[in-house]
Specification:
22 helices; 59% helix; 5% strand; elongated
Length: 497
């Protein structure tokens, strides 16, 4: 009698495949992180790339000192990035900007890794590598003050990218939360609701839209409750009217748009030259079963984010990079390997050239204008002394380690003279009386030991809004302060005993 048949166990390959996939994912992230660090090494040797960094660093100083963000260090931006700066300084025990730039490198590598995972899911392994590498390379492919700085957009990208990827997978609630996090980094993150709404509606219908909306609203509500709803609403929405007004459109704005857009496109041709082919194939189903409509909606939302406010700074264009990298990766996945290799080589040469330029970057020339006066203040000030810097040089607060006497770290809001517009267009008479009330209220509550007037040095257009243009402030300086010294054209006044 033959022995009973024994059922053969089929080998289980799923755990091995999963383990191999995890190892590949970590290897990919490690490669992207190393490449990011290599291209952004100038961030360890250049003190300041642009004034946004020192503005945020000054806010971080106030936060670490126990101050209220909007009442003592206001900006027309959401709160997430100042807290990232504060956490970075606290963790590393230093206020040097390389600390937060290191965190920015991780954010960039993580964004590139997310794009690689999505490209692999849609078009295969080769597309994944292309998308990840293109993202890291494109992030430095512009002027160093835009491509190397730890700006708002750098910390916006991971959450923005995660939102679209989660929505593509039908995760409505979590995609809404990711959009909220992106919005807390910069208001334009909310534009990502366009592709997210399309994806969750397609996957979950009205129920999906409701969950996404709830996921978006809850984090914003919690942050508003923590920081003060009125302050958050004013500084992120209501107080931005003059900044984003289309009434500021002019020939200057139009020429800036044309020049900056053409310059950015020229530097980033590797991620845009395949767009015509990508558009032709937009309805072709991918490996995960859907077309690329969401990527085009994402690109449109990013373009709208760049245009809001009609101020076309180079770092604004960073928001275009994730959807462009995915569209280009999908197009190159359908092309020959030779075309893909050529595109990556082209992108790498451009990135290395701009990275090398970063080592010689200084927005002030060989001797930063803020450095000497900051040393003077740091030497002569006591621990709890405050300063008022008249003009738009937040580097002085950061380098001297002094807290600002008012919530206005620069005088742009007071003088209605914002970056991206000619300085001689300043119209302080149009600024809100509420703003000036807050300014004088802060000045009375925290009289500064030093007033630093940058107008005589003609730094960043401050010469068009000198103190003597404001009689009440001029009277305070004349009656309560004495002229101390002039350093590189910057006048320093000290409070009388």
């Amino acid at each position: 009698m033959p022995p009973p048949a024994v059922a053969r166990r089929e080998p289980t390959t799923a755990p091995r495949a999963t383990s191999r996939s995890h190892r590949t994912g970590w290897r990919l992230f490690a490669v992207l992180l190393l490449l990011t660090v290599a291209l952004r090494l100038p961030g360890f040797v250049v003190d300041v790339f642009n004034s946004d960094e020192t503005f945020l660093a000054t806010q971080a100083h106030v936060i670490r000192d126990g101050g209220n963000l909007y009442r003592e260090a206001a900006d027309r931006k959401p709160p997430l990035v100042p807290y990232v700066y504060a956490a970075s300084f606290e963790f590393f025990g230093s206020t040097a900007l390389w600390t937060v730039r290191l965190v920015a490198m991780v954010a960039i590598a993580f964004t590139a890794w997310l794009l690689a995972c999505e490209a692999r899911r849609r078009w295969g392994r080769r597309a994944g590598w292309i998308a990840g590498l293109l993202c890291v390379l494109a992030m430095v492919a512009f002027a160093p003050q835009d491509g190397q700085a730890a700006n708002f957009e750098v910390f916006l990208l991971p959450a923005m990218t995660a939102a679209v990827l989660l929505a593509r997978r039908g995760k409505a609630g979590s995609s809404g939360v990711a959009v909220a996090v992106a919005t807390l980094a910069k208001q334009t993150g909310a534009a990502t609701l366009l592709p997210v709404a399309y994806l969750v509606w397609k996957a979950r219908g009205r129920q999906g839209l409701g969950r996404a909306a709830l996921g978006f609203a809850i984090p914003l509500g919690l942050v508003a409750f923590a920081l003060g709803p009125g302050q958050l609403l004013y500084w992120t929405v209501l107080g931005n009217g003059s900044y984003v007004s289309v009434g500021t459109a002019s020939l200057y704005v139009a020429s800036t748009f044309v020049l900056m857009t053409l310059a950015w496109l020229a530097c980033n041709l590797p991620i845009v030259w395949r767009l015509p082919e990508a558009w032709t194939a937009r309805r072709r189903p991918t490996r995960d079963g859907g077309p690329d409509t969401d990527l085009w909606l994402w690109l449109i939302s990013a373009a709208l984010s760049v245009a809001v406010g009609l101020r076309f700074f180079g770092h604004y264009y960073i928001q275009l990079i994730p959807p462009l990298c995915l569209l280009t990766a999908g197009s190159l996945a359908r092309a020959t390997r030779r075309v893909g290799t050529m595109t990556l080589t082209w992108a790498a040469i451009t990135a290395v050239a701009f990275s090398a330029a970063g080592y010689f970057m200084s927005p002030y020339g060989s001797e930063p204008a803020y450095q000497s006066v900051s040393k003077f203040l740091a030497t002569h000030a006591q621990k709890n002394d405050r300063a008022l810097v008249w003009g738009s040089v937040p580097e002085i607060y950061w380098a001297s380690n002094l807290r600002p006497a008012t919530r206005f770290i620069t005088t742009s809001t007071l003088t209605d003279s914002f970056p991206g517009r000619p300085a001689f267009d300043a119209t302080p008479e149009k600024s809100s009386s509420l703003i000036w009330d807050w300014f004088y209220e802060d000045l009375g509550a925290h009289p500064p030991r030093f007033i630093v007037d940058t107008a005589p040095a003609d730094i960043r257009g401050a010469e068009y809004t000198p103190i003597n243009r404001f009689p009440r402030l001029e009277q305070i300086v004349a009656s309560q302060y004495r002229y101390d010294t002039s350093i590189n054209g910057i006048a320093v006044y000290e409070r009388r005993p």
